[in-house]
Write a structure and sequence with these properties.
The chain is an alpha/beta fold. The protein folds into three domains: 208 residues, Rossmann fold (3-Layer(aba) Sandwich); 186 residues, HAD superfamily/HAD-like (Rossmann fold), CATH 3.40.50; 164 residues, Gcn5-related N-acetyltransferase (GNAT) (Aminopeptidase), CATH 3.40.630. It has 23 helices and 18 strands. Helix 7 packs across helix 10 and helix 12 runs parallel beside helix 16.
Length: 571
């Protein structure tokens, strides 16, 4: 896409998107005007209503304070422009002079990152000399200084501040395609439009993560996708996934990468046109298989079309189709799913199999998360437990009897007891049962915990089948005798168990103990949270104002009727 086409399409999306602006600031010591349109377009194409502001040129320390209340900040701190003409002047400087400059910049790094510590997402590029000084045999002074400053940077960043390995971006498109030294010397414009496109593509997963738009489920075909060969033609002994053959080595590596992704919280599923008993025999008994039933949350092994199968998976897992990635080797299957399920990310196995492992590693970024928690590591086991629960449902004549049979237990943790990483992660990932869909990072949660006007609660749920982990939370803003529900959300894994009602009862009891008289809540509509539109109505709240995007409610707590569910134990 040419730059003129980027400008046109970006303007079109600006008119189409509605709702609150997602404010992004770009701070730099070089000229990066073209990044504004490229970054805005990329974010808007993902449904993020971005508004990018470019800071004043070469005033990183001063401008960092100005943007401390933005949603995100991107920092281009170029090594070769720390001092005007530094790319050549450094070779004439003495070591003492270089050391003084290094200490100055190190102190500025600390100041800048502290100024924007409350920003939900900070993206800062590592210091690099690659565009000017990339000696392969001996480190030059620019490279040495860059290494020192990168160490200082790594020691200063917080969990919501992401360092970009900018050299990897250069390597993907080439040094000459990344830089424009002619414009750098005339106007301090260092980068090409091609670089900005690749750079934006690189950092996009971080923006998607904090806006609840990461992928969650990786659906794989089996034949020539999970292993080499076709069961129906080659037989169990003929398929390849071991070091015994060149093709087998590739598929063994593929399964190893998949296991690593699964351990990090990616949900694996299989969708294959095959005889179910043949695939099950491979998964449970083949000596070379690494991916087995215990790693897979859903299987659709039949002769039904894959569009229907993937749609059924989404319903069973209680996840939106935009949470899915589908991999297949067949042109037909890839084309059909891409056409019928455009919200699913569809990927075809490369014809050149040697490229397959690298492709899969790149796909990992679609599942990128700023935070990894115990719930991520145990996610597959939790979904497999849920499969057992659904089997139990069939033997009961009513939903209440079924829920009573589970032995549900609700454990609530308040304020300083909460897990900050998990609380932040839930705001970023929970979409369906989420009344306001506000996204927060760890620094946001810590800031509210330190504010006496906020109460934060998280809860975990367990039953006879196992532990669901931390699966719900609320953020309440207290002001005099009135409380406002800033956020109320629960994981899709526990929808349908009424734990949100038991939790809400406990919230009300807490507020009554604090002499709160009035409770205010609101529902902010998104494409995914329609199911909770009537939540406050069901609890007896009175609607106050409403429009297409938002509904406001209130209740006098003396009039609140407790749900008092006997089959949920409160800890």
């Amino acid at each position: 896409m040419k730059y003129t086409e980027i400008l046109k399409r970006n303007k079109e999306l600006e008119q189409e998107l509605t709702g609150e602006k997602y404010r992004v600031a770009v701070i730099s010591n070089i000229t990066i005007v073209q990044l504004k349109e490229v970054l805005e377009l990329s974010l808007r194409e993902k449904g993020i209503n971005a508004d990018v502001t470019l800071a004043d040129y070469d005033a990183i320390v001063q401008e960092s304070h100005r943007f401390s209340d933005f949603n995100a900040v991107v920092i281009f701190w170029e090594l070769i422009n720390l001092v005007d003409g530094f790319q050549s002047k450094i070779y004439l400087m003495g070591q003492d002079e270089i050391d003084r400059l290094a200490n100055k910049v190190e102190g500025e790094i600390d100041i800048v990152l502290k100024n924007i510590k409350n920003v939900s997402l900070v993206i800062i590029n590592q210091f690099s000399a690659a565009l000017i000084d990339n000696s392969p045999l001996k480190l030059g002074p620019l490279q040495i200084l860059g290494g020192y400053l990168n160490t200082a940077l790594r020691n200063s960043v917080s969990s919501t501040q992401v360092i970009v390995d900018i050299d990897s971006v250069f390597s993907r498109i080439g040094i000459n395609q990344s830089r424009d030294l002619r414009h750098f010397h005339s106007s301090k414009t260092l980068y090409t439009i091609e670089f900005f496109r690749k750079y934006t593509e690189t950092v996009l997963p971080a923006f998607q993560a904090v806006n609840g738009k990461t992928k969650k489920v990786l659906v794989l075909d089996c034949d020539n996708t999970l292993w080499g060969g076709i069961i129906g033609e080659d037989g169990e002994a003929g398929i390849q996934m071991s070091d015994a053959t060149a093709k087998g080595k590739i598929f063994k590596e593929i399964q190893t990468i998949l296991l690593g992704m699964q351990k990090e919280g990616v949900l694996l599923a299989l969708c294959s046109k095959n005889n179910e008993e043949d695939v099950n025999r491979i998964l449970n008994h083949h000596p070379d298989i690494l991916i087995t039933d215990k790693h897979v949350v859903s299987k659709k092994i039949n002769w039904q079309d894959k569009v229907s199968n993937i749609a059924e998976m989404a319903g069973e897992l209680n996840l939106g189709l935009d949470s899915f990635v589908f991999i297949d080797d067949s042109n037909f299957e890839v084309g059909l799913v891409r056409q019928e399920l455009p919200m699913v990310e569809v990927v075809q196995v490369p014809v050149n199999l040697s490229e397959y492992p690298l492709l899969l590693k790149e796909l990992k970024m679609l599942f990128f998360s700023l935070i990894n928690t115990d719930e991520d590591k145990n996610k597959t086991a939790m979904y497999l437990q849920e499969r057992q629960r659904k089997g139990q449902l069939k033997v009961h004549d009513s939903i209440d009897n079924y829920l009573a049979s589970l032995g549900l237990s609700l454990s609530i943790h308040w304020n300083q007891e909460i897990s900050v990483p998990r609380a932040a992660q839930m705001t970023q990932k929970t979409n369906q049962f989420n009344l306001t869909t506000k996204r927060y990072t760890e620094s946001d949660i810590v800031r509210m915990l330190d504010d006496p006007e906020y109460d934060i609660a998280i809860f975990s749920v367990s039953d006879h089948f196992g532990d669901y982990g931390v699966t719900g939370m609320s953020i309440i803003h207290l002001k005099n005798s009135t409380a406002r529900i800033d956020s109320l959300l629960i994981s899709c894994r526990i929808i349908g168990r009424n734990v949100e009602l038991a939790f809400f009862d406990q919230l009300v009891k807490m507020l009554l103990d604090k002499n709160i008289k009035t409770l205010v809540g609101n529902y902010i509509s998104t494409p995914k949270n329609k199911q909770v539109e009537a939540f406050y109505d069901g609890l007896g709240f009175t609607p106050t104002t409403s429009n297409e995007l938002q509904k406001d409610f209130t209740i006098q707590l003396e009039n609140y009727k407790m749900n008092s569910l006997p089959y949920i134990k409160i800890n």
